[in-house]
Structures are given as C-alpha cells and as structure tokens.
Design a protein that fits this description.
The structure holds 2 protein chains of 2 kinds. Chain A is an all-alpha fold. Chain A has 8 helices and no strands. By secondary structure, chain B is of the alpha+beta class. Chain B has a 4-stranded antiparallel β-sheet, covered by helices on one side. In chain B, β2 and β3 form a beta hairpin. The chains are: A mainly alpha, B alpha+beta. The interface between A and B is large, with 64 and 54 residues.
Chain lengths: 193, 203
C-alpha cells in the first residue's frame, strides 16, 4: 500500500478515525460529513428516496463509531467505510427488490401495464431501468466503477470479492445491459465476442 | 493484447483506472478493432448517462443528529484501556491526591479573596501542563511526512491527537496518559526534522 503524506485526504481520514476510536465525537462528525455527500448521492441512485440512503449511511457510521478501534490500517479508511456501506446497501437492495416484486404482483392484478410507457421516458430513465434489472452485485459493481470511479482492484477490496469475480460481474452486467438497453432506447453496441 | 483481454479492460479504461502497464496494449488494440472502439463509445455514453443525472443534495445535519441521538442512547461498551504499569498507577494516585489538594487550595483562595481579585498563576513556556493528559501542544509537520512517520513520532513522544489537522495543518496534541511529561514530549517533537512548529498551549 502506498505511504500517504500528511497532505493527503487518506492520511487525514486515518487520523480522524484514530480520534473516533478514542471516542472523539467532533472527529466522528467530521468524518460523517466528509462521507455523507458521496454516500447519499451513490445510494440515492440505487433507490431514489432519502430515507433509504439515510438508513444505510447511519447504519454504516454506527458500525464506524463502534468498530473504529478495530481498524488496523490493512486497507484505506475509505475502502473500509465503503465496504461497510456496500454490505448494508446490498442487503437493503435485496429487501427493496422483494417489496417491489410484491407490489408489482399486486398492481398487475389490478391494472394492466402499459407496454409503450418506456418509449416516453428520457435517456436517464431507460438507463435507470436497465440498471434496475441487473442482479444487485452486478449493479453495484457498475455503479462503483462508473459513478464512483473506483478501479477493479478497489472494488475487489471494498466488496471482499476476488478481482476475477469483479471482472466477471462487470462482464455480465455489460452483457445484460446490451440486451435490455436497445429495446428501451438504443444505446447498446453490437454483440461483443 | 488479444481481443478478449481488451474487451475486459474497456470499463476500467473508460473510468480512467486501467493500469498504465496495460493502457498501451489496449490503445494499440483499439486502433485496429472497430468493435472495441464502438464498445468504448457505448460504455462512455453509459457512464455519462449515469453521472449526469440530476441529484438532490441533502444536508447531513438532520441525519447526523438522528445518529448521535442513537449513539447517546446506546453508549459504547467500555473500550479496553491499555494496561498500566505499577509506575503509572503510582503517578495516577499522586495526581489524584495533588488534584484534591489543589482544589482545596483553590476553594480557600476563592473564599478569602474579594470577587475579581483571584490572580491566575504565572505560567512560563517551560511550565508543565497543570492537567496531565489535557491538550498541551500545538504542532505543524512537514506535508511530506507520512502518516506512519507521524504515528511513530507521536508514539515516541507519548502524545495523541485531540484535534486537527486544521486546513492549515495545525494539530492539537495531548500527552497519552497522566504520567507523561509534556515538556519531554515537546523536546521529542522539536528534535524531529519534520516538525516545523511545536509550542506549548498557553494556559
């Protein structure tokens, strides 16, 4: 792991976390504020409701507060925090999907679905729809790569999955989007291999 | 680089995180492969589409308050304290006795003196901190210093960070435990080439 100089945000966050481990509430609030914007923007992409994002952020930082003393610097602070958030988000997304599936079944029984509603939506909506159809791990991989800008190795560290698994998730995510996006709007390129 | 490998690297090339060692090989492949070039454009469009969506900015204050309420309602289990040596325990006992004596003396002084005439004791730069373990030093370090070097120095000086770094890089430090001597800590700090400034906090 590269040695961060004191000027880097990495070093600043490591120092803040040390103070959090000592029970310093001011350092905790500083760390929370640092991550809130990034996490809330990321999480609200997954479910566009602030209560969803807030619950995951606060659960994440609840763990940070309680486990800061156990952080041994084996990874970056950001990797550690994003890893906690990832596991919370994955669980919450699965719960959300179950609820959504139940709601959909109920609404299908009462109202017929409009087949051409997708055509009225703009670019972002059909990208969102394509992403929403991906399995949770594939979607989170794509979001972490394209929205948060993490490398394959960083995503591997955050998720605790081997690099080969991340590559496979990305590959399958692209394949699925290729199948779903053209029918929704026409972005998808030709078949890859 | 073969087509399959290049295809696999495209998302990481698009998000700017592909390793330098692989970039040249990928760029060479892209020059000759229209299918991969199309995929680069498609993935770029997807990434832009994901990034440009309007986001509602939410201020963290209310959420933080909720979390702090939850933390206050469920305090941490006692964190295990570092084992203290018999010498430290003797110092702690002495500190408690000294503190009690000082409080008694202060009470007497307050009872005897007319309001407003209590004089603060004169402190020199070399005076030890009256409250061991409280913030006693302000310091600035070279920005080139690494986190590991700072941690090693603070450990050697028996200091811990209680505040900072501020945007200007100022740290507020305190002795790690009540038995530690702030004067000695200051000398240890000043002896380090990366310490640009280390001064006791005026009391």
């Amino acid at each position: 792991m590269p040695r961060p100089s004191l000027q880097s945000s990495e070093a600043r966050e490591a120092l803040l976390l040390q103070r959090v481990a000592d029970g310093d509430r001011q350092a905790f609030e500083e760390l929370y504020t640092t991550y809130h914007r990034r996490l809330s923007r990321f999480l609200m992409r997954l479910a566009p409701r602030y209560d969803f994002a807030e619950e995951i952020i606060n659960d994440t930082f609840w763990v940070v507060w309680r486990k800061a003393g156990e952080f041994r610097g084996a990874s970056r602070v950001s990797t550690w925090i994003m890893g906690i958030a990832y596991r919370r988000a994955l669980r919450a997304l699965r719960d959300e999907r179950q609820i959504a599936a139940t709601d959909r079944r109920m609404s299908e029984e009462s109202t017929p679905d409009s087949e051409d509603s997708a055509a009225r939506d703009d670019l972002h909506d059909w990208i969102s729809r394509g992403l929403a159809e991906l399995p949770e791990e594939q979607r989170l991989t794509l979001e972490m790569a394209y929205f948060l800008g993490y490398s394959c190795e960083e995503i591997s560290a955050i998720t605790g999955s081997p690099v080969g698994t991340i590559k496979a998730r990305m590959f399958h995510a692209r394949e699925k989007l290729r199948l779903s996006l053209p029918s929704l709007g026409g972005l998808g390129p030709r078949s890859p291999l | 680089m073969n087509h399959k490998h290049a295809w696999e690297l495209i998302p990481w090339y698009v998000n700017g995180t592909v390793a330098d060692s692989k970039r040249d090989g990928l760029l060479f492949h892209l020059e000759h492969c229209s299918q991969c070039r199309d995929e680069v454009e498609a993935q770029r469009a997807l990434m832009q589409g994901m990034k440009t969506r309007q986001q509602v900015e939410v201020m963290p204050h209310a959420s933080l308050q909720k979390l702090m309420t939850r933390i206050e309602a469920d305090p941490l289990p006692q964190r295990p304290a570092a084992p203290r040596s018999p010498r430290t325990l003797r110092w702690l006992t002495a500190a408690v006795v000294l503190q009690a004596l000082m409080l008694g003396a202060l009470a007497t002084l307050l009872l005897r003196s007319p309001r407003g005439e209590v004089q603060a004791p004169y402190q020199t730069v070399s005076s030890p901190a009256t409250t061991p373990g409280a913030a006693s030093v302000r310091a600035v370090f070279s920005p080139d210093m690494t986190l590991g070097e700072l941690q090693a120095l603070l450990e050697r000086a028996h200091l811990r960070i209680v505040n900072g770094p501020t945007p200007e890089g100022v740290y507020t430090l305190a002795t790690s435990s009540t038995g530690d001597d702030p004067k000695q800590a200051l000398l240890t700090l000043r002896a380090h080439p990366a310490a640009r400034f280390a001064e006791p906090i005026g009391r």
